Amino acid sequence: MVAPSSAGEGLRSSLHHRGQRLTPQRQRVLELFQRTGEGTHLSAEQVHQRLLRDRARVSLATVYRTLRLLSSMGLLQELELPEGGRRFELASDAHRDHHHLLCIRCGRTEEFESPSVLEAGQQAADGRGFRLLECVLNVRALCPRCAADEALHLEGPE
Amino acid sequence: MVAPSSAGEGLRSSLHHRGQRLTPQRQRVLELFQRTGEGTHLSAEQVHQRLLRDRARVSLATVYRTLRLLSSMGLLQELELPEGGRRFELASDAHRDHHHLLCIRCGRTEEFESPSVLEAGQQAADGRGFRLLECVLNVRALCPRCAADEALHLEGPE
DNA sequence: GTCGATGCAAAGGCTTTGCACAGCC
DNA sequence: GGCTGTGCAAAGCCTTTGCATCGAC
Q1: Candidate from A117, A125, A147 with C-beta closest to B117
Q2: Cβ separation of B139 and A124 shorter than 8 Å?
Q3: CA–C1' nearest nucleotide, residue B21
Q4: Which of B12, B19, B75, B148 is the most buried (most CB within 10 A)?
Q5: DSSP conformational letter for A57
Q6: pLDDT tens digits, residue range A12-70?
Q7: Strand partners, B137
Q8: How many CB atoms lie within 10 A of CB B115?
Q9: Phi and psi of A67, rounded to 5°?
Q10: Which domains does chain A have, with CATH numbers?
Q11: Which chain C positions have some atom within 7 A of a protein CB?
């Protein structure tokens, strides 16, 4: 078999702390996210498809269970992009400050970072005694092309 | 004091621009949001319940259709709070800068505003040629009580 | 009167769950 | 070997849709 990555080790001990086990399926899911990188947003369905493509034997139900588990462990996090459905991505400290610029018309998504946003979020949390975990700014917008389309097709509403 | 008719007028002409009609149901839904205020987050189910309580005859299917319609017209907007399911709220210019501090453990939600966040979002949009519509910062955090619980229990089945 | 909107109920996605078996520790 | 995790399929939400009727314009 393939040598387990360092990810496997960390995952295993984290699971053991919770009285749970490291299975190939769980390892595969986490590895997939680590391999695809931090900016990747995957739905449960996409995770399942990719694992099958990699010749891993995982059921969709297990993918759902695993995504939940890894999220509850803080290794993954769920995104908040209503237009596209539920998505997950790798959690990391860098992602505490992790923002999306989303075209609400065509779905195009760009990522950006902004220390000042993190700062504002931290202030808001501190001011109310909350402990900040993560800070996600979603900027809903029209991309250049869709903005042009809108201008053409729409009469001006007030 | 908002005259009920004023909402109806604007809505009616907006609908007519699109070749659509003003119905009591559509008017009721919009009025509900205007009445409950801008900070209110309502699910389709909640909208339906409240309208029934107000003795309006609306079906849940129509509520869904109307929420979609009003959102596509820019009068309502969909929130992005994965923990709670789909919610809608009144759209307004004030809400271009409209942020949530959310306890991921108990679901408690606080709202806040932050001009610097809007500015950061505007910058990100401008830099890529996007036209900003709305800027929503979701700060995922632990509220004071849940943070204390976490510290005490360290870990546990949920 | 026309054509869009509504209500109802059925269908549709996506996600979760019950159960028997498989496999990690 | 015990007990958790998995796969499968059925059940569960939430949301959308087809069709006959109703009602805005």
Answers
A1: A117
A2: yes
A3: D24
A4: B75
A5: -
A6: 888 888 889 999 999 999 999 998 876 678 899 999 999 999 989 999 999 999 999 99
A7: A137
A8: 9
A9: -60, -40
A10: 1-93 (1.10.10.10), 97-158 (3.30.1490.190)
A11: 4-10, 14-18, 23-25
